[in-house]
Amino acid sequence: MCTYATVTECVDASAKGPGGQWFHVTDATVYYDHPVHVMAEHSLNIDLSDPSRGPGARLAVELTRESAERLVAAIRTALDSAPAGG
């Protein structure tokens, strides 16, 4: 089911684009909707971008719900294993 809930956060990150070039990322947009590519009825979609650089400075990911849940757990495990403030 589409929630139409879109969450946008400012981020300080880097992403590697399709040409193999790294670019700075300033915006993260997360939403649950119909995917464009992944074979699923709905997906968690994550867009990482730097809008000031135009549409080419964008990395998009579509995850099945199960994959998104595993990714959240993996991120939490990795962050919990890092020293505080590191």
Short description:
This protein is α+β, with helices and mostly antiparallel strands and 86 residues long.
Fold and architecture overview:
The chain has 86 residues and is an alpha+beta fold. It has one domain. 20% of the residues lie in helices and 42% in strands. It has 1 helix and 4 strands; from the N terminus they run E-E-E-E-H. Strands 1-2-3-4 form a 4-stranded antiparallel β-sheet. A hairpin with a 5-residue loop joins strand 1 and strand 2. The radius of gyration is 14 Å and the shape is globular. The termini are far apart.
Largest sheet: 4 strands, antiparallel
Low-confidence stretches are none
What's the order of the H and E elements?
EEEEH
Going across the biggest sheet, name each strand in turn.
1-2-3-4
* Class based on secondary structure composition and strand pairing: alpha+beta
Approximately what portion of the residues adopt beta-strand conformation? 35-45%
Shape: globular
Instruction: Tell me the count of domains.
Output: 1
Q: Mean pLDDT, as a whole number?
A: 91
Using only CA atoms, what is the Rg?
14 Å
End-to-end distance: 38 Å
Proportion of helical residues: 10-25%
Number of strands: 4
Number of helices: 1
